Amino acid sequence: xxxxxxxxxxxxxxxxxxxxxxxxxxxxxxxxxxxxxxxxxxxxxxxxxxxxxxxxxxxxxxxxxxxxxxxxxxxxxxxxxxxxxxxxxxxxxxxxxxxxxxxxxxxxxxxxxxxxxxxxxxxxxxxxxxxxxxxxxxxxxxxxxxxxxxxxxxxxxxxxxxxxxxxxxxxxxxxxxxxxxxxxxxxxxxxxxxxxxxxxxxxxxxxxxxxxxxxxxxxxxxxxxxxxxxxxxxxxxxxxxxxxxxxxxxxxxxxxxxxxxxxxxxxxxxxxxxxxxxxx
Length: 280
Hints:
Layout: E1 2-4, E2 27-29, E3 36-43, E4 55-58, H1 60-65, E5 72-75, E6 80-85, H2 86-120, E7 134-142, H3 144-158, H4 163-166, H5 168-175, E8 186-194, E9 198-206, E10 212-220, E11 223-229, E12 244-245, E13 259-269
Parallel strand pairs: 8-13
Antiparallel strand pairs: 1-4, 2-3, 3-6, 4-5, 7-13, 8-11, 8-12, 9-10, 10-11
């Protein structure tokens, strides 16, 4: 779990524990290329998107036992993990970080602006009053192909070890910037979420119809990204709750090409574990 040491909007940020955030292993297998090498610190949310802000990292098990637990690890340089070799870390920084940062910051600014405007106009009392509605907006000159590849790289860091072994097309997609992957084995989703932040490797969640969905979570700011492996979701591989499927960003758009994109995106409650963070 995590709370930011400062934030430009008055929100409580929470991040689900993943063991990689608590370890400082200096050598190991790179989560992207698979080579055994010295591991570098990877910002799960790139620094140019705001991922360099200091965080307090809480263990949610401690908080579930005692909501006033004050034990945390302070990470001054943001949410980082030693998961990638220098070559892979440099590649995603060079090829994808800037484009993801533009998209991420634009979406978060737009949602924050609309929320503040509605609160000031008396239309809502708090941001969570918007859960269940949708937001429409247009972002000009963004590169969806590059953005989707940066999202995949982040999932390599937070997912259980071996993601690129299970789905080699994810590895090829990241390592070859212009490569169009076969997307039969995975799906990517995007939504706008209100509430705490969560980062988690694959979890199983029950549906209203009694079936189970398995997906990984990156929820940060007002954005939510989710990864599903097809083999774990045979009954419904192409949908995930109130999210939009963006897997086609990897097939219908071109490397390094800019597009004007219009979105109509649901506003949902966060899909990760919600645990109260101790007050400062």
